[in-house]
# Entry
Amino acid sequence: MAFGVTRKEIYRWRREAESGTVAFLTHFWLDDRFPECITVTKAACTSRDKLIHWGKEYGLRPEWIHEDGNIPHFDLLGEKEEAVLLAEGCAEKLYELRERSRRSNRKDEPHA
# Structure
């Protein structure tokens, strides 16, 4: 389940990916298969060849590309997500979501 992303961010991500740029969309994400991950980043580009070449720089395999929604993309999780976003200079959203999660969790803690 995805949340913590605006419609405007999705449109921007789609436009950038369709223009041939590798575009990033980071959002909250809950999946029982990955309970330790609270976010995912979709790294997308409609040029599959460009996406494959870009992914190789980060050790991402072409068979990991998702083709759903007509925009080929990698799902980046955990340490790989943070490393790629830092290298690309776009980790702001990841850190914003982590901070929102920390603030939210603090409100739910019982008071001593």
